[in-house]
Design goal:
The complex is a heterodimer of chains A (245) and B (464). By secondary structure, chain A is α/β, with parallel strands linked by helices. Helix content of chain A is 47%, strand content 12%. In chain A, the strands form 2 sheets. In chain A, strands 2-1-3-4 form a 4-stranded parallel beta sheet, sandwiched between helices. Chain A has a 4-stranded parallel beta sheet with strand order 6-5-7-8, with helices on both faces. In chain A, helix 11 (188-204) packs across helix 12 (215-227). Chain B has helices at 7-14, 18-40, 45-61, 63-76, 87-101, 112-116, 119-125, 135-142, 159-170, 179-196, 222-229, 249-261, 290-295, 310-314, 316-321, 332-342, 359-363, 370-383, 389-403, 405-421, 432-436, 447-454; strands at residues 80-84, 105-108, 129-132, 199-202, 206-208, 213-218, 232-238, 242-243, 268-272, 280-286. Chain B has 464 residues and is an alpha/beta fold. In chain B, helix 16 packs parallel to helix 18. In chain B, strands 1-10-7-4-2-3 form a 6-stranded parallel beta sheet, with helices on both faces. In chain B, strands 8-5-6-9 form a 4-stranded mixed beta sheet. The chains are: A alpha/beta (245), B alpha/beta (464). At the A-B interface, helix 1, helix 2, helix 3, helix 4 and helix 8 of A face helix 1, helix 2, helix 15, helix 17 and helix 18 of B. The structure holds iron/sulfur cluster. Iron/sulfur cluster is lined by residues 259, 305-311, 334, 363-366, 368, 370 of chain B.
């Protein structure tokens, strides 16, 4: 089983430690994982801004880099969702369609493909989980509060067995943080207000860390936390899961 | 030409008053939670949504036949049916009925369609005095504002604002913010209206093809008061309000109030089937862009909307930007997919006023794929040339960099170098990210640089 590690462009550039944690974690879980060096970006920033017609280059590049893998795994729900919904190749639609099905977000890959139920780690802190919308409502990584359906959460299931972790229950379980891709700059005022409110919920539950599966949301929250000189830290779920496996 | 502030500008102004924004957000979230409780009490909730969506699918696929069936049944019941192609024609029809009766005053209950058509302005220019009888509508009407929410028209106002408005217009005691006192004042003022108006206009929640009757849902009973006391009842509806049979009503009535306010059912769900003896009843069926929307395959589902407002209450952007920032009769997520259909140029900003979080799609009782439609509108608007030039240039540049691994690598290195060594180039007032957020701290090396040294070597065709 060959696994291609798909690292979002901004994670590669700004949060290499998240990529390293993902890489190490998958290796520890027994995967043959490789990082194709010529990958760049899935094209989501353009597509969500209305420029889906400009993503052909990104699509072609993605296809060239990942075609040969059995699975493509990525520590970001929104990038995975974009590939799943929008990866196309006019000349080889069959392959594109196969690849759309082979791409997985990290925690769903661990729970659904590797069928790993528990990860033995150690993280003795109070943690708030930020459910990123694209992962939750798009990929259905966890149940959404709007629906009348039984609760489940793939990331929480993995975190719950980590030693010492105190996962708090937030007041608004799955409210959006306001990152939203280019929304965070085109609608700066609302974006920041949403982020501040998200942080307030975590603060009210006195967390040490905010974690989540999407570094973009966490980057936005981190930016606000740092500006507020808050002691609350940001940590990607891969880093917690990789702590002592 | 645009004469409105863009959503982001209006939202930034609304956000200056932090306390008010917090209050607006919390009030609507409270309604959303009430909706959750009500929905979660019904085990078959998701099934009901599916049924409602399927019924509406059927309606949209056979709208022509259902409308004719409705018309002929309504006529048999003695109702006069009018057809209006657009807002202008709708307004003219309403006015002509008033003229025919020589009446200069109208009492009106809630109707988002008349907001869409700007009926109040039209009639007042013709010298007709319109009084909105829904309490929230009356408050915004006195303030000469449009409603900011389709179910809770004055939700952007606090009781202090209402007290101020009533003091000015109805002569209530200054500074008396007691909601009971204020409601009583409004009641007395409206009672007089109900007793003296000869023409009453109402909206329509559902029009039943099978029977030719309409159903109007209110919590205040004001539609009934108006329609029962007037000589002429005019009901205005968009053509998508049709449902095939009476039995389908049960599905929608169970969903509507729960989704809107968390109530099991609206206090009044009144059926109007024929005029009372010696009185008149008119129904105006309006297109106003609906045929166009029906023809846009990606967007036709938006016509399933039953105007419950749940998507607004759940929308984290709406809750923090207020309805007026959407500069359209219907605000919020659903408004943002209806508005570009009416005018792409004027409303090109609205589909971008969303993070695409998808909560709206999940609460929608008729399962409209709202956030997917927002995404699709963005593509259409850009293709039709409604994007700012600067954005297009930036996106083209980005696409070039991201399609080319070597350029990407270099751009990343340069970017991180700049952030580290000349931070002022990034951390300045021209960077909207930096205004209220710190930039991420640039690391010494990117992941690919680390991987080159530490990763498993492998040969991939593309990496040679
Ligand atoms: S789109 Fe759906 S949730 Fe929004 S108002 Fe219409 S029916 Fe209600």
């Amino acid at each position: 089983m060959r696994i291609g590690l798909f690292i979002p462009c901004y994670v590669d550039q700004f949060y290499p430690k998240v990529a390293i944690a993902t890489y190490e974690l998958l290796q520890k879980l027994g995967c043959d994982v490789r990082f194709p060096m010529k990958q760049t970006c899935c094209g989501q920033p353009m597509a969500n801004s209305g420029y889906a017609h400009l993503t052909k280059g990104c699509d072609a590049n993605f296809m060239a880099n990942f075609a040969e893998f059995d699975y493509i795994v990525c520590p970001s729900g929104s990038c995975v969702l974009h590939v799943k919904e929008h990866l196309h190749d006019e000349n080889n639609e069959e392959l594109a369609s196969k690849m759309r099905k082979r791409v997985f977000e990290l925690t769903e890959f661990i729970t659904d493909v590797l069928k790993v139920e528990t990860i033995v780690g150690n993280f003795p802190y109070k943690v708030g989980m930020h459910q990123s919308c694209h992962g939750q409502r798009g990929l259905k990584l966890s149940q959404m509060s709007e629906l009348n359906a039984p609760f489940f959460s793939k990331p929480e299931q993995l975190l719950s067995k980590i030693k010492g972790i105190n996962l708090v229950s937030l007041s608004r379980k799955d409210e959006c943080c306001g990152f939203g891709g280019t929304f965070c700059v085109t609608e700066e005022a609302i974006s920041v207000k949403m982020g501040q409110d998200r942080i307030k919920d975590h603060e009210a539950h006195q967390v040490d860390y905010i974690t989540g599966g999407d570094m973009s949301c966490l980057m936005h929250l981190e930016g606000i936390l740092k500006r507020q000189k808050s002691p609350i830290q940001i940590i990607h779920i891969a880093e917690i899961l990789n702590a002592t496996v | 030409m645009k004469n409105n502030l863009e959503h982001s500008e209006a939202a930034a102004i609304f956000n200056k008053d932090v306390k008010r924004v917090d209050w607006h957000d919390e009030t609507l979230w409270f309604v959303r939670e009430k909706r959750d409780k009500a929905a979660h009490q019904i085990p078959e909730w998701e099934l009901l949504r599916e049924m409602a969506s399927e019924i509406k699918n059927n309606v949209l696929s056979n709208i022509h036949d259902y409308l004719l069936e409705f018309e002929s049944n309504a006529q048999k019941n003695g109702i006069v049916v009018h057809w209006a192609a657009d807002a202008e024609e709708h307004n003219k029809i309403v006015h002509s009925i008033m003229e025919k009766h020589g009446v200069k005053q109208m009492v009106k209950s809630k109707s988002m369609l008349t907001e869409e058509c700007h009926l109040n302005e039209y009639l007042s220019e013709k010298g007709i005095d319109v009084i909105d009888s829904d309490l929230g509508e009356r408050i915004v009407q006195l303030r000469k504002e449009p409603p900011s929410h389709i179910v809770l028209p004055a939700i952007h106002l606090k009781k202090e604002d209402v007290s101020e408005t009533f003091h000015e217009h109805l002569g209530t005691e200054k500074g008396n913010n007691d909601p009971q006192y204020l409601t009583e004042a409004a009641r007395l003022h409206l009672r007089d209206t109900f007793l003296t108006r000869k023409v009453a206009l109402t909206g329509v929640n559902f029009a039943i093809a099978e029977t030719g009757e309409i159903v109007v849902c209110t919590n205040e009973g004001n539609a009934d008061m108006g329609a029962h006391l007037a000589d002429v009842h005019i009901a205005c509806m968009g053509f998508e309000k049709i449902i095939p049979q009476r039995k389908h009503l049960s599905v929608f009535l169970r969903l509507l109030a729960r989704s809107a306010t968390g109530q099991p059912i609206t206090t009044f769900s009144s059926h109007f089937k024929k005029p009372r003896d010696g009185k008149e009843m008119h129904i105006v069926i309006v297109d106003n862009g609906r045929t166009t929307q029906l023809g846009r395959e990606d967007f036709r589902n938006s016509l399933k909307c039953i105007r419950c407002g749940a998507c607004m209450n759940t929308c984290p952007v709406y809750r923090r930007s207020g309805g007026h920032s959407y500069h359209n009769a219907v605000a919020g997520p659903i408004g943002s997919i209806l508005a570009p259909n009416l005018d792409m140029n004027k409303n090109a900003d609205l589909p971008f006023a969303s993070t695409l979080c998808g909560s709206c799609t999940n609460v929608c009782p008729v399962k409209i794929d709202i956030h997917d439609q927002l995404y699709k509108w963005r593509q259409v608007l850009v293709k039709e040339g409604h994007a700012p030039l600067g954005k297009t240039i930036a996106m083209n540049g980005m696409a070039t960099v991201l399609a080319n691994p070597m350029v990407f690598d270099l751009a990343g290195k340069v970017g991180r170098f700049v952030m580290k060594n000349i931070p002022v180039l990034v951390n300045n007032s021209l960077n909207p990210w930096y205004k209220q957020r710190e930039m991420p701290a640039p690391p010494n090396e990117s992941f690919r640089e680390w991987y080159k040294k530490n990763g498993t070597e492998f040969n991939n065709k593309n990496n040679e």
